[in-house]
Amino acid sequence: MTELSTTHALTWDGGRLYRYGVPHRVLSGSLHYFRVHPGLWRDRIRRLADLGLNTVDTYVPWNFHQPREDEEPRFDGWRDVEGFLRTVAEEGLDAVVRPGPYICAEWSNGGLPCWLTAREPALRSTDPAFLTPVGRWFDRLIPRLAALQACAGGPVVAVQVENEFGSYGDDLAYLRRLRRGLTERGVRELLFTADGPTDLMLDGGTLPGTLTAVTLGSRPEAARRLLAARRPDEPFVVAEFWNGWFDHWDGRHHVREVESAVGTLRGILSDGGSVSLYMAHGGTNFGLWAGANEEEGRLRPVVTSYDCDAPIAEDGSLTAKFFALREALGARGPVRSRVRPPRLPAARLPLVHRADLLTGLRAVAAPVRTGPRPASFERLGLDAGMVRYTAHPRIPAGEHRLVLKDVRDRALVLVDGALLGVADPGSPELPLRGTGAVVRLDVLVENLGRVNYGPGIGGHKGLLGPVLVDRRLVQGWDSVPVALQEWTCAELADAVAAGPARTGAGFATAVFSVGTPADTFLALPGSCRGLVWVNGFLLGRYRETGPQLTLYCPAPLLRTGDNTVTVLELERLGTAVELREEAELGPPEEYVEEFD
Description:
Elements: E1 10-13, E2 16-19, E3 22-23, E4 27-31, H1 41-50, E5 55-59, H2 62-65, H3 81-90, E6 94-98, H4 114-117, H5 128-146, E7 156-160, H6 172-184, E8 190-195, H7 199-205, E9 211-216, H8 220-230, E10 237-242, E11 253-255, H9 258-269, E12 274-281, E13 292-295, E14 298-301, H10 320-329, E15 347-350, E16 352-356, H11 357-362, E17 369-371, E18 386-391, E19 398-404, E20 407-408, E21 410-415, E22 418-423, E23 429-434, E24 441-446, E25 462-463, E26 467-469, E27 472-473, E28 477-482, H12 489-496, E29 506-514, E30 520-523, E31 529-534, E32 537-543, E33 551-553, E34 561-569, E35 576-580, E36 588-590
Parallel strand pairs: 4-5, 4-12, 5-6, 6-7, 7-8, 8-9, 9-10, 10-12, 11-36
Antiparallel strand pairs: 1-2, 2-3, 13-14, 15-35, 16-29, 17-28, 18-24, 18-28, 19-23, 19-26, 20-25, 21-22, 21-24, 26-27, 29-34, 30-33, 30-35, 31-32, 31-34
């Protein structure tokens, strides 16, 4: 039980939630500032208010703010979480912040920096090798959030302790240390944990004296009964209601029927329940920030779009689900936002092949690590992108087997500049014909996404095992990081200018002119898989296998006059880029997450 307070915003008593002593229900929606262009933050926050919500909740991804240990965390530009929260306040909404340090969120490495997980501490535990860097991160982050609490005149009314820890481990001393770390750095508003509604998860993830919230996609009545039995004095709070779901490459586009989502929402809200819609607006996994899941040892990377079949679509459009959920939430005021933001007219642009794959990559300067065996991404200090490995083995005459014993995640293998094939953990072996001569062996390994959930968090990337010609190890490797996510406009231009182009893969460009910038969706018919930049900004990945076949390009990335699309195609380049007026996220599949 907590005392009713007029000092702190949210308190509870007798199973009810109060805001400054007045009965209250948190009607929140997840909106991640790191998945929305800053020029659109206010627009998206206003759309949440139009949905009938009174609160915005967001995670804070550590790796987004501090990708390198030897550099101070950044809190400017796209990383200006304080500016985002101030905008929430200006739009008249409260804020809930979920600072982790682990956030899941289908975000690379669950938000943990690669430089930390590379050292292989006991993640999400009291291991000093983990908690000491977390403490330094909190020293820089938490005072910024504390200054924006409601008790200090800001919008932040609640802060989450870790994130769904009960589905990972049972080190309650770790949770207590994190809770103390928040309060010692100035957090005074409501603290809460959030876990799936099962005894197993609640046993591992909850703390006495800290509000227990749940995350769910269905069966709120069962969750309410379970919480009432365990925490009879606490209000029913659903910290994540999954009204949609995310997608994996080579899968289908997950959707949730409007009636199903509305029915579950009504069940949550009954008898004074509070809720946060996950997601209210999903946004986009720009760049290479999309995470991945592991299922039975198989990596399943998350797509670039984080639309999540949310009521506010990836481009801000108001969907049928928006209006149905708005009614269930009891919204009465007018909808101020346009149902569909402006879009560029459809167009087809010729795609001009400028430079071959290896030629373009070699044109961008990068440090070279030479050694008897390949260096992992982590040894190279590389989070995302690719590593280009080169060796010069002699291949005896005849047929042989080239075996990549442990490749993470996908490798293009070239011999004397010609593509030999593709290797991955499920297909690590390629046939190789030799003549007795020394060959140049290039292995271009792509990180397809770092695991964001479960025990696979922190896994390493690259050529982690030996490369064999039959039984003989290939030794003597140059390992070169290809930090695509960090490339400047000048480095991208160097790659493009490294032509001429002779193969079917590599760098290509297209140019289109814009009068008034507006949203558009890019498609690459005929191309296989790769990455797309617009005016030097990395939009993300594409694959012809889908389900996502268009990339969302928000208006603030464009400029009046000429705009340049740059494509890095890894296998088979098409002849055109299309600007489309509608997203194409793939064939739908109904999906509702349930706990047994």
